[in-house]
Amino acid sequence: MKPLGNVREQVTRSDVAAFRKDAGMSFRVRPSAVVDGPLDEGSLDLPGDFSLARALTSHKLKFTLTGPHMLCKTLLDNHYGSYADLSNALADVLAAQVAEIDADAGTGRVIRTTGVRTTKPRRRSAPRRGYV
After folding, report:
1. Which of 20, 42, 107, 121 has the fewest CB neighbours in a 10 Å radius?
2. Residue 14 has what pLDDT?
3. Measured distance CA(33)–CA(9) in Å, rounded
4. Residue 39 contacts residue 90 (beta carbons within 8 Å)
């Protein structure tokens, strides 16, 4: 979160206390960062990160990023006033950068994830031998 504009990584004791008042945040002890103003891309450079990763392999590349709805759950919002508005602001910043990634040219895919694995990894099932 630290590359985003108007987001501070320094979390004060009063920030932690405010974060803990929200029952939906009980899965975290403290916020990852604090939003103090309207979000902007700051120094976030997803197209550059994709290009760097793309150059490291000749295989297909799955470039993943955490979705805005999950990101906003880790932040203390001192600006927007609602999860929906904060999530939409995060989505706008991410979408603008993802739009600049030419995944097809790099034989890659850009996938938004929730940041939490919700399914088990797929196993390749070998044919059973000796069974009719």
Report:
1. 121
2. 97
3. 5
4. yes
Angle at 2 between CA 11 and CA 44, to 5 degrees: 165
Helix, coil or strand: residue 111: strand
Distance CA 109, CA 37 (A): 32
To the nearest 10°, report the CA torsion of 19, 22, 28, 31: -30
Write down the number of H helices and E strands in the chain: 4, 5
Cβ distance 17 to 90 under 8 Å? no
Task: For residue 49, give the amino acid letter.
Answer: D
Domain segments of the chain: what residues?
Answer: 5-113
Contact 46, 74 (CB under 8 A): no
pLDDT tens per residue across span 64-121: 889 999 999 999 999 999 999 999 999 999 999 999 988 766 555 666 555 443 344 4
Single-letter residue type at 44? L
Both tokens assigned to 78: 């001192």
CB atoms within 10 A of CB 101: 20
